[in-house]
């Protein structure tokens, strides 16, 4: 590898092709690495653990620190794997206080979307999109990348999943029906499902505005709502892991706290000694 620029280009290609990360994540990784390099006279491959820890110590917020560290660890893993660096650097993430993810109940979601005027295509789209996100547990980027051919007999194939995994999830009939009504009302033949008024794929910002308008939350809260509904209903944690596309069960285990809280609320509401 002849230069620093070539190395970052190779890393970018690795993230895009091998790890299948979205362009926003890749841009964030490269920005973090550029910021790291700007704090030293060394090249990135010359840095050692002490240098990196000195850089990370400038970030008191642990979430910010972990985001930077995720970029750095991914880069040095790539370098070691492809023999661009002899030293194998991997720094453990900072421990964060665990907080319950924000979620909405089924009733709150239905109350919100029932306010949508479905007499126009835009209303049919907004209604179907919110149900689609809630019924599938998709990340918003996965939903917006979905094409018509990805839905077969009530099953959604997520081809643009985060990381290397591809997964298939079932869609609830009510979401499928809303989707069919929206698609049948379209005059456009785009392969993508979610379109703006110009017929172009819907942007993340537009999707955020749609969900915020009717439910007052971000699209990601619908993903948490999907998982929470399943856990409270008694679904196996590993099944939820597969549906969400989590690489590690540890990521999914945060929802067990919701399950415990639900059990505690049930006991407190119905047990005679409570």
Q: What integer is the average pLDDT? A: 86
Query: pLDDT under 50 segments (min length 5)?
Result: none
Spatial gap, N to C terminus: 68 Å
Strand content: under 5%
Here the CATH topology of the largest domain equals hpI Integrase, Chain A
Rg estimate, integer Å? 22 Å
Note the total helix count.
13
Please outline the major beta sheet.
3 strands, antiparallel
Helix content: 55-70%
Q: What overall form do the CA principal axes indicate? A: globular
How many domain units? Answer: 2
Question: From the 3D coordinates, which CATH architecture of the largest domain would you assign?
Answer: Orthogonal Bundle
Strand/helix succession: HHHHHHHEEEHHHHHH
Number of strands: 3
**What structural category do the secondary elements indicate?**
mainly alpha
The order of strands across the largest sheet is 1-2-3
- CATH first level of the largest domain: Mainly Alpha
In CATH terms, the superfamily of the largest domain is: Intergrase catalytic core
């Amino acid at each position: 590898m002849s230069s620093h620029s070539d190395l970052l280009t190779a890393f970018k290609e690795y993230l895009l092709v091998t790890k299948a990360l979205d362009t926003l994540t890749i841009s964030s990784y490269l920005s973090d690495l550029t910021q790291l390099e700007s704090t030293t006279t060394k090249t990135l491959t010359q840095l050692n653990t002490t240098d990196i820890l000195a850089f990370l110590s400038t970030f008191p917020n642990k979430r910010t620190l972990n985001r930077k560290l995720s970029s750095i660890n991914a880069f040095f893993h790539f370098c070691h794997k492809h023999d661009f660096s002899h030293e194998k650097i991997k720094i453990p993430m900072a421990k964060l206080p665990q907080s319950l993810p924000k979620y909405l109940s089924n009733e709150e979601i239905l109350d919100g979307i029932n306010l949508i005027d479905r007499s126009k295509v835009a209303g049919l789209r907004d209604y179907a999109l919110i149900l689609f996100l809630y019924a599938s547990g998709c990340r918003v980027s996965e939903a917006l990348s979905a094409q018509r051919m990805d839905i077969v007999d009530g099953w959604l194939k997520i081809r643009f999943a985060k990381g290397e995994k591809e997964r298939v999830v079932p869609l609830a009939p009510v979401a499928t029906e809303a989707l069919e009504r929206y698609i049948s009302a379209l005059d456009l033949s785009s392969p993508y499902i979610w379109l703006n008024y110009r017929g172009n794929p819907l942007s993340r910002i537009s999707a955020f505005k749609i969900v915020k308008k009717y439910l007052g939350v971000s699209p990601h809260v619908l993903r948490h709502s999907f998982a929470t509904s399943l856990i409270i209903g008694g679904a196996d944690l590993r099944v939820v892991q597969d549906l969400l596309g989590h690489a590690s069960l540890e990521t999914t285990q945060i929802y067990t706290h919701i399950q415990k809280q639900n059990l505690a609320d049930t006991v407190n509401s119905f047990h005679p000694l409570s």
